[in-house]
Amino acid sequence: MDYMSLAAAIVDWMRAYLDRAGMDGYVVGLSGGVDSAAVAALAVHAVGDERTLGVLLPCHSQPEDAAYAQLVASTLGLETQTVDLTAAYDAFVAAMPQGCELAYANVKPRLRMTALYYIAQSNNCLVTGTGNRPEMMVGYFTKYGDGGVDIEPLGELYKHEVRGLARALNVPAAIIARPPTAGLWPGQTDEAELGITYDELDAILCAMETETTIPASEAIQARVREMVATSAHKRALPPTFPIQRDLHRHG
Fold it and tell me: Which residue of 25, 57, 70, 90 shows the fewest CB atoms closer than 10 Å?
């Protein structure tokens, strides 16, 4: 793939989208991972560093997350804001009844998205998503958390394509090589939680879409198909009950 041409096309698309929306810039949540780094770089190329704001949102996070995020920002010459959500998270959880571990974990991305929209609306900006194609296809995102955004520049790219794009955008090698993590709990990694590597997931999903031989066991194939099927609700607008109305009837 010609990643330089891809980057130029996404940049043009992001610039045009912002213009049509009549907004002033983009807000990017910087996690210290390759996805948010690539999106931040695209936004800077699209509208300039003066119209792109990187936001760090620690919430019981590991110190290295902020260090990697600042590395991205300094590489891009990007202004950042830091909003520590730890106290807000603790207060929310304390006010709620006992919940399961996943419910606790998903509070973090939902708080982060609330903060990003607060900052974006205060600056007449749009919130950029950082999701990629395999995450969207298997539902590996938090509904109304990191899935609640205005634009998804990487939404059609497999993870290996995101890495290739990041290299073309001169994202620091340490960021590209870093194991992907959503920062939901100490030591959490995406691949451990998914139970499959991104390279394997890319290959399986691509084979499913092209109806070619899937390079995985029947058990893994079944698991991936189940993730795609059960997460369909995350990729759709909330359904409404269909009422048949007689448009010619009055009263």
Answer: 90
Fill in the DSSP letter of residue 128.
B
The Cβ-side half-sphere exposure at 165, using a 13 Å CA radius, reads 27
Measured distance CA(79)–CA(70) in Å, rounded? 10
Catalytic residues: 35, 135
How many structural domains are present in the chain? 1
Residue 103 belongs to a domain:
yes
Predicted TM-score (pTM) of the model is: 0.93
CATH number at residue 133: 3.40.50.620
Strand ranges inside the chain, DSSP E? 25-29, 52-56, 79-82, 125-127
CA distances from 248 to 244, 245, 251 (A): 12, 9, 10
> Torsions phi, psi of 43, nearest 5?
-65, -40
**Does residue 196 sit within a domain?**
no
> How do residues 130-187 score in pLDDT, each as one tens digit?
999 999 999 999 999 999 999 999 999 999 999 999 999 999 999 999 988 776 667 7
Domain hosting 64: range is 3-186
Please check whether residue 223 lies inside any domain of the structure. Answer: no
**Mean predicted confidence (pLDDT) in 240-245:** 90
Q: Which two tokens stand for residue 28?
A: 């990017």
- pLDDT tens-place string over residues 205-241: 999 999 999 888 889 889 999 999 999 999 999 999 9
Angle between helix 159-168 and 3-21 (nearest 10):
90
Q: How many CA atoms lie within 13 A of 181 on its CB side?
A: 20
The string over 195-217, giving b where at least 16 C-beta atoms fall within 10 Å of a residue's C-beta and e elsewhere, is ebebebbbbbbbbeeeeeebebe
